[in-house]
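Deliverable D2.4 — example input (C-alpha cells):
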C-alpha cells in the first residue's frame, strides 16, 4: 500500500520496527548523557522552592512594615503576600521553562 504524504506521521500508527528503532534511539541517547543523581533532583526542587518562597516572604515582610507605618482599611501584608507569591510562581515557571528548553535543545543537537 503506498503511503499518503498528506498524512502526518503522528497520526499514522507506528510499525513494530519503527517502535523498536525509536526505543533504541532513546536508549543510545540516554547512554551518551551523563547520569543524573538524586541530588540533582533535590537541587532542582530547592531552586524552584526558594524562587517561590523568597518573594513571598519579602512581600509579607514589606506588607507588615507598611501596615505598621501606614495603617489603613486594607491589609498590606495580605496584598503583598499574594503579589509576592504570584511573582515567585512566575519566576519559577520561567526558570523551569528555560531549563526544559535547554534540555530539549541539547538532545536535538545530539540527534543530528
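Example output (designed residues):
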Amino acid at each position: 500500500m503506498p503511503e499518503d504524504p498528506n498524512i502526518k506521521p503522528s497520526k499514522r500508527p507506528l510499525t513494530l520496527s519503527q517502535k523498536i528503532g525509536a526505543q533504541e534511539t532513546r536508549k543510545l541517547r540516554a547512554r551518551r548523557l551523563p547520569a543524573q543523581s538524586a541530588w540533582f533532583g533535590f537541587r532542582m526542587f530547592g531552586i524552584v522552592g526558594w524562587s517561590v518562597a523568597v518573594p513571598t516572604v519579602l512581600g509579607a515582610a514589606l506588607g507588615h512594615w507598611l501596615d505598621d507605618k501606614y495603617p489603613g482599611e486594607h491589609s498590606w501584608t495580605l496584598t503583598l503576600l499574594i503579589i509576592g507569591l504570584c511573582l515567585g510562581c512566575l519566576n519559577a515557571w520561567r526558570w523551569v521553562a528555560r531549563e526544559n528548553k535547554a534540555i530539549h535543545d541539547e538532545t536535538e543537537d545530539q540527534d543530528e
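The mean pLDDT is 82.
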